[in-house]
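Dear Dr. L.,

I hope this message finds you well. Following up on our conversation about the binding site, I have prepared a predicted three-dimensional model of the protein together with zinc ion. For your records, I am including the exact sequence and ligand specification that went into the calculation, followed by the structure tokens. Please feel free to forward this to your student if that is useful.
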Amino acid sequence: MNLKLKKGLSIFALVSIIGYANGQEKEKKSMNNNPLLSEWTGPYKGIPAFDKMQVNLIKPAIRKGMELHLADIDEITENPEKPTFENTIIPLEKAGKELERAFTYYGIYSSNVSSSEFREVQKELAPEISEFSSKISQNEQLFKRIKAVYDKSQEDPLDSAEQRVIDLIYEDFAMQGADLNKEDKKRYAAINKELSGLYTNFSNNVLADEENYVIYLEKDQLGGLPDSYVKSAAQAAADRDKKGKYAVTNTRSSMDPFLTYSKEREFREKVWNNYYSRGDNGDEYDNNENVKQILKLRDERVELLGYDNYAEWRLQNRMAKNPENAMDLMMKVWPAALARVKEEVSDMQKVANSEGADITIKPWDYRFYAEKVRKEKYDLDSEEVKQYLELGNLTQALFFTAGEIFNFEFTPVEQGSVPVFQEDVKVWEVSDKDSGKIIGLWYLDPYARQGKRSGAWATTYRSYNKLTGEKPVLASNNSNFIEPAPGEPVLVSWDDAETFFHEFGHALHFLSADIEYPTLNSGVRDYTEFQSQLLERWLSTDKVINQFLRHHETNEVIPDELVKKIKKASTFNQGFATTEFLASAIMDMKYHTTDPDKIDPDTFERETLKELNMPEEIVMRHRTPHFGHVFSGEGYATGYYGYLWADVLTSDAAEAFAEAPGGFYDKEVAAKLVKYLFAPRNAMDPAEAYKKFRGRDAKIDALMRDRGFPVPENDKE
Ligand SMILES: [Zn+2]
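The resulting structure of the complex is given below.
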């Protein structure tokens, strides 16, 4: 189970059951003195005591928290009165608040400040947590009461918020086998327990391979690398007791620029190999067997529930509704992406030939020559662009956008007034620009470091709902920018700047929540990336450009010409980007719609990609043995397509802004956006919410235009 996802990024039943729990403080509960379980105190109606975190407190906190949560559930099931929404669903929504607090710290340890010590704890707790989840999701007495409330609501509907809550909860329980007979239930729980161990093992293996494969370069092997990269590589080497050398670490933020700029083809191949072999090295950290086991167990589990395959089970409450709809969309885009790759490779080969390089383009050449083609065709120098993308300015750009669209104001809190888990973390107070009402806090953990997982993500430490007291939202963004040498600015690539906006979109989605019950905070996997992807669009609006995209030394606004080139270049390399993504998304769906007895991951990946005519110059964005979205938990399993699904909505919604009189700052469209697409979270069916915003269903046309692909004839209007 991916706990990081529990606070609103996931709609998982198990998770939402554990997740949003809250309850009245009870006598029995004041018995413990573990600070990780304690009620949050201090300003903002209480904030996490990150200054009191200790790894050795985690295990007892989680164990005690689970015990208290189960006691809350017992109280519900022991109620002699007839089940009602008030005596069953409301206490269920409030249950387990100590555990939720403990999981906040657990989440920080697993994502932000992991260590071998914590990983041991995690390994030990994973099966216990899974067993605990099963105890709730398989609780017959509890399900009986839920079903009674649900059945009654089918004849005599509740108010819309209450009805949505009971529908979601009932569906979650049913999807998780609450209706199974005793024997099947036992097996179901055993499978979950085994899976949770496999998930933890899977992600720890990937992390181990990220830490274990570092390439050290000598001074004369740095050809082509930008200064900023060299500086941080020197620092990374020094951090690893190799002063005087230059470390290329095995993470995306290190690999990607290296492959883009390094002239050392041999090292490019090595770096590429290390990165795309994570979890696939045939040693103790190899994940192939884990994948095989995971697929078998998932299949067996949904078979108990009467489904043909995992994907069918998983997608029933997604916006796509079933695997066919998701595959349909992907296969509509796939041929256009492949055709574009052919053009890209031929452009790159021409450049290589003209330079007299006697090579055929290989996967480790793609980024390098793409950058050259970009410079030649689009005359765009990514390094030049970076000079105008300074982290502090970009952060102000986020705040400006939030102010214009959400009416939020961000004010830095005084250092030390809000505890943080690492000295780099900064905190802002978020309030309403007009009323001054406090909306929440925003935590930013910007830099890469050992023990922090790679990539960027958003999470909440506390989500908003009316039932448990309308407390300020505690939202956080986490990135892996390379920490600059002292006194140097953090300059980021255009892609990373977009990602920064993206994750902030998730944070705004948390912060703008206006819902009655904790369950309504849950995200819908193929919908919840839409809000964040849409936010990326504000990076290239005139108002953001003119105010915040300024040269870090001269303060000069990024030149018009350069912006035009960036916009023109946005369709550049879409063959690569779309293909590497779709290959992963399609594989995800294939893995979960194929009989697992016929799957040997290594062969299956190779053969399926071959059937799809995967170009040999490109590899899946996430190859199977390190596809954490899919195999380190269930959050994105058969859900990776969701990014594309969300992209269709994004392009279509962006056109709504572009067509409005006020463009991206049109007040009317912005108000509709917040009202229908952000504030309700899962209180409204996503398809219905989108229709209210747009006046019609989403169409694929805008997406194809955005990527510079031809719009399919039968879709044209
Ligand atoms: Zn996202």
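In brief: Residues 502, 506, 529, 532 surround zinc ion (CB under 6 Å).

With kind regards,
A. P.
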